[in-house]
Glutamate-1-semialdehyde 2,1-aminomutase
Amino acid sequence: MIYKRSSALFAEAKKYIPGGVNSPVRAFKAVGGDPIFVKEAKGAYLYDEDGNRLIDYIASWGPMILGHAYKPVIDAIIDKAKKGTSFGMPTEIETELAKLAVSMVPNIDKIRFVNSGTEACMSAVRLARGYTGKDKIIKFAGCYHGHSDSFLIQAGSGAVTFGSPNSPGVTQGTAKDTLLAAYNNLDEVKTLVQANKGQIAAIIIEPVAGNMGCIVPTDSFIKGLRELCTAEGILLIFDEVMTGFRLGKGGAQEALGIDADIVTFGKVIGGGLPVGAFAAKTEIMNHLAPDGPVYQAGTLSGNPLAMSAGLAMLTELNTNPDIFDSLAKKTAFLHEGIGKALSKKGVPHQINRFGSMVSVHFTDEPVVDFASSAKGNNERFNTFFHGMLDQGIYLPPSAFESYFLNDALTYADLEETIAAVENLNL
Ligand code: PMP
């Protein structure tokens, strides 16, 4: 494929935007080469500035679960835009989306909308600290909860892809309140809790991790976390920015059968517009301003365009929940096909999958945490990525990311993708 215009646009972008991108993973630094500039997208396909058509497996990192430019969502945005784009005053549609979200997700009574997943997680932790009167949090190595200071401690996703899991600019004072454990390792968490008795406000976790590839929690780990939090008066925060409204109507809480104390959202909840949210039972949410003392605000929070996109998206998922099964089946088909193709070539690999999240790791060992994910063969990953791209398949440009399937993908698309793996020289 030819990427001349994308390369020229990237060169121009680099003159005015740091690294040429507004979010680091987009720059292809890990896999090498120039990033693809998108012109437009429809359904399962991206169309780039050079006229190439690509089958999309990132779905804007999750939001486009029904495919790009999904008509009911686009129509809702256009209708709303004609009536004004922001007021900084209450609108009815905020309550409509809140009511629908609360009805779909278990264990939450109230929800507050923000503008990104970062804001959602940052605010959730502030609320947990305000509610419990404690300062420390526990997070897991390789989990990513956005780029706010407290979370850039052994963070996953782009932070680790670019070698800055502990970013300069985060003060030691902030870093000391973030304690770190290995994913799927309950003993480590118990040890931290014992050593910091009565000081931990919250444990925050990606209930199915997507930022070190896809990693599924063991039953005993996730149940053990719940029990530990209850016993110790620690709030369990599920970061459902990726998993919310993707693993099912009720997200990971429903899929895993575990109740969280605070849940954060991003991606699908905004239908592709900038929306994040955090939610909990009334008792916790009432600690937020203006009812309570924990401050949190936003000029564009609850923005009417974003709310209309989110409402159209969630309405679609709520009235047609078979979508989640259909997506999981497609993902299983892809998993099996890629697995067979790689095995036939004798390429050591692991494929992790949960619902419509899946990732391929070029390693012999099971991938259960950040350390095992980091053992993947990077060179082979890069050959795999570029080999697929050359055949018109757009995969995440880093081994520390999950694929996100969208429901516009047909079995023919999946077969084309599997055939592309078969063609690779790995
Ligand atoms: N939490 C998780 C689990 C995420 O995957 C992400 C982003 N990929 C975030 C938080 C941050 O969201 P945003 O990029 O919208 O700030």
About this structure: The domain at 4-69+321-423 is CATH 3.90.1150.10 (Aspartate Aminotransferase, domain 1). Residues 61, 116-118, 121, 144-146, 157, 206, 210-211, 239, 241-242, 266, 276 surround 4'-deoxy-4'-aminopyridoxal-5'-phosphate (CB under 6 Å).
